[in-house]
Each structure stands twice: as structure tokens, then as C-alpha cells.
Design brief:
Length: 156
């Protein structure tokens, strides 16, 4: 299904998505196999997948925005490649702005927002080992961005 009103989603989104996923993987060591201890919101992705194209795009934009806000924290406790982190954030921000331009402003998904808030609190807020907390966040961000890429490629 193609969302006619937004050629970005069909032509540029996959390219930018592959780029930021690669940067995310390469900016640190192998992505950890440890778990955060939060239930990943698969149900929200299943609901989004059943939505109309404009709502799917808005959901994707909200995920990108939440990830951007999460990684906008002071990421100094971890030894990530700073150039790749900067390139990742730039690519993510470009993708976010372009995706938001495809849809009219609408209210975001509160449950998704609360999930990201809890992720921030359970890792950065409670863990003493900040480097480990950031690695857990990187893993969760990778999972979300992979889901978003799949959602965009199969539904738009």
C-alpha cells in the first residue's frame, strides 16, 4: 500500500532507515543481549499495522521523535563513536522532519510515550552503571527502528 501524499515514505524512508540502523550498530560494540526488563510494546505495532496509512506514518513519526528525545540526553558515559553518533542523530532528525511533513498534526499515542518514559526511568534513572544503561537503550532503540522500518516497508 502506498501513501500517495508522501513520496518520501516510498523513496527516501527506506534509504535513511538503513543508514541510521547501520550507524546505530556500528557506533558501539556488538549490541548487548541483556534485557531492560520492560515489555516491548509489540501490541502497539500490531495496532499501528492495522491502521490507515496516515495514522501509520504518524505512529512512525512519534517513534522517531521519542527515540530522538531519548538520545538527546547527555550521552557521555558510553564509549560510542562520536562521529557515528552525530551522523546517526542527524539522519534520524532528517527522517523525523520529513516523516512529520507527510501528515497533519495529531495527538500521539500516550502508551508509546509512557513506554519511552519508563525506559528512560528504568535505565538512566535507576541504573548506577550508566554505560550499561546506554547500551540497553541502544538495543531498545535498534528494536524500535527495525520495527518502524518493517512497518513502513510492509504497510505503506
Amino acid at each position: 500500500m502506498l501513501f500517495i501524499g508522501c513520496p518520501w515514505m516510498q523513496h527516501k524512508f527506506p534509504q535513511y532507515s538503513r543508514n541510521y540502523l547501520t550507524l546505530l550498530e556500528e557506533m558501539g560494540e556488538k549490541i548487548t543481549e541483556d534485557n531492560v526488563g520492560l515489555n516491548f510494546p509489540d501490541e502497539l505495532y500490531r495496532l499501528a499495522r492495522k491502521s490507515q496509512p496516515e495514522r501509520i506514518i504518524w505512529f512512525i513519526a512519534q517513534v522517531l521523535d521519542e527515540v530522538s528525545l531519548l538520545l538527546d540526553e547527555n550521552v557521555t558515559a558510553v564509549a560510542w563513536d562520536q562521529k557515528k553518533l552525530k551522523d546517526f542523530m542527524s539522519t534520524l532528525d532528517t527522517q523525523l522532519v520529513a516523516t512529520q511533513s507527510c501528515v497533519s498534526k495529531t495527538k500521539g499515542n500516550k502508551r508509546l510515550h509512557l513506554y519511552f518514559k519508563k525506559l528512560r526511568n528504568e535505565t538512566l534513572g535507576k541504573m548506577e552503571d550508566k554505560a550499561k544503561a546506554w547500551e540497553l537503550i541502544r538495543k531498545e532503540v535498534h528494536r524500535h527502528l527495525t520495527k518502524v522500518d518493517l512497518l513502513a516497508s510492509t504497510r505503506l
